[in-house]
Write a structure and sequence with these properties.
alpha+beta, Nucleoside Triphosphate Pyrophosphohydrolase, 41% strand
Length: 148
């Protein structure tokens, strides 16, 4: 991607959560109508870990514990999104493995219409474009974090 002056860059989080059958928790955002992993954005004075935990709680109703960092992703080809209002944003995303410690999966009233676990070979067709390595990296179960 060619550098654009009208692209804003933001830190972000994403959390992959597996259930006992190794299905992946996705949520469907109202503004896009597409499924994606739970995400978060740190506010001033907040850590990236706090943002990830808060993002999962706000979008899915689940309290999670972060187990490890899967990777940090900043590739403009896979991390730049156009919002419905025409704004372009490139995210630098810290991607965590999370484990549910409390709560029941339910969509937030404001941003999320559905929350559901999907098998890795049964993903919804209306899936947000995920960075190409996110699922592969999560299943790789490496100790070291990926930097992509």
């Amino acid at each position: 991607m060619q550098e654009k002056k009208d692209v804003t860059m933001y830190p972000a989080t994403a959390v992959i959560i597996f259930d006992e059958q190794k299905r992946i928790l996705f949520r469907k955002r109202k503004e896009f109508g597409l499924w994606g992993l739970p995400t978060g954005y740190p506010l001033p004075g907040e850590t990236i870990e706090e943002a990830a935990i808060k993002g999962v709680r706000n979008e899915t109703g689940l309290k999670v514990e972060l187990k490890k960092i899967i990777g940090v992703y900043s590739d403009p080809y896979s991390q730049t999104f156009e919002y419905p209002n025409g704004e372009f944003v490139q995210f630098v995303t810290t991607y965590f493995l999370g484990e549910v410690v409390d709560g029941h999966a339910r969509p937030s009233q404001k941003e999320v219409s559905h929350v559901q676990f999907f098998g890795p070979h049964e993903l919804p067709t209306d899936l947000m474009p995920l960075p190409p390595r996110w699922l592969v990296d999560a299943f790789a179960n490496e100790d070291a974090a990926f930097i992509r």
